[in-house]
Please model this.
Amino acid sequence: MPANRQFVIDHLPTSRLTPDVFKASESAIPSPGEGEVLVRTRYISLDAANRAWMWGATYRAAIKAGDVMAGGGMAEVVESRAPGLAAGDLVWGDTGWQDYAVLNGKHVTKLGKAPAGEPITHLMSVYGVAGLTAYFGLLECGQPKAGETVVVSAAAGSVGSIVGQIAKIKGCRTVGIAGGQAKCDLLTRDLGFDAAVDYKAESFSKAMRAAVPKGIDVYFDNVGGSVLEACLFNMNNNGRIACCGAVSQYDSPQAHGPRGVPGLIVTKRLTMRGFIVMDFEEQNAKALAELSGWVASGQLKVREDIIDGFDNLPDALIGLLAGDNVGKRMVKVS
Ligand SMILES: NC(=O)c1ccc[n+]([C@@H]2O[C@H](COP(=O)([O-])OP(=O)(O)OC[C@H]3O[C@@H](n4cnc5c(N)ncnc54)[C@H](OP(=O)(O)O)[C@@H]3O)[C@@H](O)[C@H]2O)c1
Model:
């Protein structure tokens, strides 16, 4: 019987994430109890929120020292004692950073097949959390109308790259904010953004203003902090801000709130709406049908960043927080 490779939290980080936070370990492969399944992990999703979970409880329990590092994964059922699930089924669940996991059958999602001709990894990117977050956050919270200006931050990332393309499909002027000229070039050259602004450049505020000559109607905020502040000052009256995440705050003990709250919210009559992708679960089928139609027609390009090898998990997360990724980052483990 093979061993179960795991990454366990050695200690919680108090500042930037470093590799020593994770300890490689092995355990026996567990057995499922009544209502549970034993799964073998194939791909583990790397998400900026993985780091946020180390600060305390959010929409999920906090990660503690001694825990197997938490994370979502695509896995195959090896043994099932749960109704509706059988050996060989492909599922999505909170596998954590390990080869094998026992999960409550009620807490896993059975995955269908990827559309013909598309790789299975699309179930983790455009048809997974990233695609659904982009779709619902933009369309339900942002309510964009054709002709409006939509701005998205972390625009070359997994969620942001899809947000910008959906905004374009909806007839909006689309502006991405990303770190570095290479990512900005990719947004306008490959992903159809009308403009892109480098938030790491000294001239960021000026460039931001120039990129939105008619102001911002919808801002999809993935990062918070000073980028949110720059957008707040450029919002049009009655603008909408979809609050998706705050990646600028996840890897640092010091949170920086933006200036202009609540003053600009009042004077510009802004709506800021936070959401979690699960809030819209009952509409998933409609969203997936629309997303797959756009992929099939070539209007929506899927960018994935797949790293091979279980041992690379810590560096893959540290690199994601540093902006190494373009599109949806995941690690292939088996
Ligand atoms: N609400 C929900 O249901 C939901 C669901 C999924 C994800 N999210 C949120 O969506 C956001 C994107 O997450 P993701 O997992 O898809 O990651 P991602 O966008 O693929 O990668 C994170 C990106 O954040 C950027 N970044 C890092 N530090 C930054 C900083 N200080 N300021 C600005 N940008 C910074 C980096 O790109 P650069 O090179 O451009 O810096 C990096 O590539 C996160 O805030 C996450 O929490 C929310």
